[in-house]
Amino acid sequence: MVKQARTGNGFHSHLTGLMFAAREQGIPLPNLFTDASFHTFSTVTLSTTHPNPTPGVDGIGFGPVSERCIGVSYFVFENEIIWFQLGRVRYQKNKNSGKTDECAKIRPLSISARSANMFR
């Protein structure tokens, strides 16, 4: 499973996306999404990713997978600068509909630490 996730073939985020799309469209959720094991699987508190740094890309957003989760993406660049980006879920009132919308709030946090000296 780790190898699949590292190569972009992970499944959890895709399933969560399908669940939210079904809810938004008013489609009844398949049993998979109402099963207790899916709820347990979906309630992680820290979700991380470490994509390969790409020229021209300063960072990548990585959203949380549950209400109490923090999503963290981080890069370690060739010059040993470490860059973090944190995400959490927050709720806000939609000005047009009056409904409460769930949205991910991504907060960039740049840490200028040399990775070679971090653990000394």
TrEMBL record:
<keyword id="KW-0808">Transferase</keyword>
<comment type="similarity">
    <text>Belongs to the carnitine/choline acetyltransferase family.</text>
</comment>
<dbReference type="InterPro" id="IPR039551">
    <property type="entry name" value="Cho/carn_acyl_trans"/>
</dbReference>
<dbReference type="GO" id="GO:0016746">
    <property type="term" value="F:acyltransferase activity"/>
</dbReference>
<dbReference type="Pfam" id="PF00755">
    <property type="entry name" value="Carn_acyltransf"/>
</dbReference>
<dbReference type="InterPro" id="IPR000542">
    <property type="entry name" value="Carn_acyl_trans"/>
</dbReference>
<keyword id="KW-0012">Acyltransferase</keyword>
<dbReference type="InterPro" id="IPR023213">
    <property type="entry name" value="CAT-like_dom_sf"/>
</dbReference>
<protein>
    <submittedName>
        <fullName>Choline/Carnitine o-acyltransferase</fullName>
    </submittedName>
</protein>
<feature type="domain" description="Choline/carnitine acyltransferase">
    <location>
        <begin position="2"/>
        <end position="85"/>
    </location>
</feature>
